[in-house]
Amino acid sequence: MTKHISICIVTFQPDLESLATTLSSLHAALQRLNDFHCSVLLVDNSPVDTLRPWLDHHFPDFEIRLLAGHGNLGFGRGNNLAIPMVGDVHLVLNPDVELSRDALAASVAFLANNSGCGLVTPLSYSPSGERQYLCKRFPSLLDLVLRGFAPGWLRAAFAGRLSSYEMREMETDRVFWNPPIVSGCFMLMRGDIFRRMGGFDPDYFLYFEDFDFSLRAAQFADIAFVPTVHIVHGGGNAAKKGFWHIRVFARSARTFYAKWGLKVI
């Protein structure tokens, strides 16, 4: 029986070179899936639609549905536009992620072999080859300030605390079950989980929507860090993106703590 995998990518004024890498790696990874029908939705929150001719030129053989011209809905609401097309398996994917060729096959196989698992998070590296820690413990306000805004010398003084927050004890040769929070850059899940949850909480415009989603998803199924699923991720670090991002980050943090409870230290 043919199954359906859906993929949603939300962009805003994307770096086209990075997006091309994402789409090329996605296309290659999809070729490793047997007995799966694929639907790809690209939601462009940019103010002007420029992606259709670019897609037609660079990816003529890759069937991608493009939604554009609706304005900047934010990350969560943009992803929620995919709810009507969500398949048996659904992937939330950032436009700055490069998938290994076996990433989707390994993820789907893990779900098939672990009926209690509803969401898979991968082993991630930066483009320079440094390991990224996509799993987190519930953040205190101090953790967020140290990690995002403190100078290097102060972060070094709290290295042990930040290491614990980022769950750096997780090894790369074994599955780790139920990390409290996982990154939204790559979330492969059972489609019924996404539908039952109604997608992401629309109260978050940007940042913390994946924190909230992780905590809610854990109420429905197990979450697994699966290190045989490899990606390269180029994003992160709101503090270095300017005042607008810092302001939105702070607003989303307030929304998150109002919903889940404030942890100061």
Short description:
The protein contains ten helices and ten strands.
Structure description:
With 265 residues, the protein is α/β, with parallel strands linked by helices. The protein has a single domain (3-260), classed as Spore Coat Polysaccharide Biosynthesis Protein SpsA, Chain A, CATH 3.90.550. The protein contains 10 helices and 10 strands. The longest helix has 18 residues, at 243-260.
Distance between the termini: 51 Å
The main sheet comes to: 10 strands, mixed
- Structural class, from secondary structure content? alpha/beta
Number of strands: 10
Topology as a string of helices (H) and strands (E):
EHEHEHEEHEEHHHEEHHEH
If helices are DSSP runs of H or I spanning 4 or more residues, what is the number of helices?
Answer: 10
Give the overall shape, derived from the CA principal axes. globular
Task: Give the DSSP E fraction (strand runs of 2 or more residues).
Answer: 15-25%
Helical residues, percent: 25-40%
